[in-house]
Design a protein that fits this description.
Largest sheet: 7 strands, antiparallel
Number of strands: 21
Number of domains: 2
Strand order of the largest sheet: 18-17-14-15-16-13-19
CATH topology of the largest domain: FAD/NAD(P)-binding domain
Number of helices: 15
Shape: elongated
Helix content: 25-40%
Bound molecules: flavin-adenine dinucleotide
CATH superfamily of the largest domain: FAD/NAD(P)-binding domain
Radius of gyration: 25 Å
């Protein structure tokens, strides 16, 4: 979509349609791209010495750009509450548009076995370099080492208070429209430290507190269990919390558990105190069948050790699953029926999530109710937000970057429209 250049006769020619984007992550870069493609003159401010640092970190584990699943299912990944909004955001810039965007930068994408979409060669650095080159070619003016400390609505527009992180000098440029894409609160070393909430709150914008999302949880493992299972995966399991069950795998760590199945249950786990998890270690086998397999060849009165050894063999349990049954056995468990019950519903009480700084993403940020359909802050005309700084969360699988691209596109288009129409 082409956006017309703003035409406010009261502004000098060189100031027409000037808009600031603050935050050089994927959401901010995409907003800047959308605006520049529409003919707006864009200034992009970034607090760090370079843009896209978290995007590069994401690339280290194989940059999962988006997912190939059908759009109807896609929107549900962002939670049921704002589903309609996500349906519309993804209809505007969904997985197909994201893949076409990468192709335009000369980077082909492919669908992996899990349905996740990756750039061929999986090089985030190549993609970022070409993206920035494209933005420069479109006239986007980059200013790095500029940290936004505050924003005030004046007669001429939004006055930004930007501090140069090298010499502490402050500048206060004014823009009629501003897109903020300041990220969440995980991995602060990349620049996304979530500290912007302080000045955004002073504007009267409601902000939800930060929580770790897509993160590990802590468990009080016994030393014996850790010795046997630390660093081992528990595969082909189903994990339940708060009435929701996810198939997948977990990884045993020194401090607790990690893994995709756990990440997806973050909202349910945060809702219970203490967070409680149940693991079905043999989801495809019924209790009756497990019992029959165990009993076959087991003598009456067999010792607990013998029953456990037989269970490992008959049920083909992994070492970590076997260690769970062996070293986290409730006092007094005697019968094989109880063991079968535990295999199908192994309880793990979690101490709590790992710190938000370590998490892949964060929940919290600008609340949806503060925003209109255009991602404009309703109480702050001309101020738009995008990316992880908005209070949404999604599982790993490409949904995070897709969410940043979709909201960046919408915020950029909306800011362009605001400039052109003054609304
Ligand atoms: C280890 C890891 C792996 C990941 N892997 C994937 C993956 O494979 N697929 C996926 O979909 N997602 C992945 N993600 C998540 C994804 O990287 C983020 O969702 C995405 O980067 C968020 O984009 P954003 O533009 O909203 O914010 P960010 O990328 O966090 O960018 C925000 C920018 O704003 C700047 N900023 C912040 N405050 C200020 C300020 N006051 N003034 C000026 N500038 C400021 C920051 O320096 C930063 O550059 C991963 C994340 C991590 C940590």
């Amino acid at each position: 979509m082409d956006l017309p250049i703003a035409s406010d006769p009261s502004l000098p020619v060189e100031r027409k349609a000037e808009v600031a984007v603050v935050g050089g992550g994927p959401a901010g870069l995409r907003a800047a791209e959308t605006l520049a493609e529409g003919g707006c003159r864009v200034v992009l401010y970034e607090g760090k010495a370079s843009v896209g640092r978290k995007f590069l970190v994401a690339g280290k584990g194989g940059l999962n750009l988006t997912h190939s699943e059908a759009l109807e299912r896609f929107a549900a990944r962002y939670g049921e509450k704002e589903r309609g909004r996500w349906d519309r955001l993804l209809a505007e810039f969904g997985p197909a548009e994201l893949r076409a965007w990468a192709k335009k930068l000369g980077v082909e994408t492919y669908v992996g076995t899990s349905g996740r979409v990756f750039p061929a060669g999986q090089q985030a650095a190549v993609l970022l370099r070409r993206w920035v080159a494209r933005l420069r070619a479109l006239g986007v003016d980059f200013h790095v080492n500029q940290r936004l400390e505050g924003a005030t609505l004046t007669e001429g527009g939004w006055e930004l208070r930007l501090q140069d992180t090298r010499n502490k000098k402050v500048q206060t440029p004014v823009f009629r429209a501003v897109v903020l894409a300041l990220g969440g609160a995980s991995w602060p070393s990349t620049g996304s430290d979530g500290k912007w909430t302080e000045f955004v709150c002073t504007l009267g914008v409601p902000v939800a507190p930060w929580h770790a999302a897509n993160c590990g949880f802590e468990v009080d493992w016994s030393p014996e269990f850790l010795q046997a299972a630390e660093g081992l995966p528990i595969k082909n399991i189903a994990v339940t919390a708060g009435g929701r069950t996810i198939a997948g795998e977990l990884l045993v760590t020194r401090y607790g558990l990690e893994g995709g199945a756990l990440y997806q249950l973050g909202p349910e786990l945060r809702a219970s105190n203490p967070p409680q998890l149940w693991i079905d270690l043999k989801p495809s086998v019924t209790k009756e069948r497990l019992g029959a397999q165990l009993w076959l060849g087991l003598k009456p009165g067999a010792t607990v050790e013998r029953v456990l050894a037989k269970a490992m063999e008959s049920w083909k349990l992994s070492s970590a699953a076997g260690a769970l049954l062996r070293f986290h056995r409730p006092d007094g468990e005697q019968s094989w029926q109880e063991l079968v019950d535990r295999v199908k519903r192994f309880p793990v009480t979690l101490k709590g999530p790992r710190p938000v700084e370590e998490a892949i993403s964060s929940a919290g940020g600008v609340r949806w109710e503060a925003l209109d359909e255009q991602l404009g802050v309703t109480s702050c005309p001309g101020l738009f937000v995008a990316g992880e700084m908005v209070d949404w969360e999604a599982p790993t699988g490409g949904y995070l970057l897709q969410g940043c691209f979709a909201t960046g596109t919408r915020a950029g288009r909306s800011a362009g429209r605001f400039l052109s129409r003054g609304v």
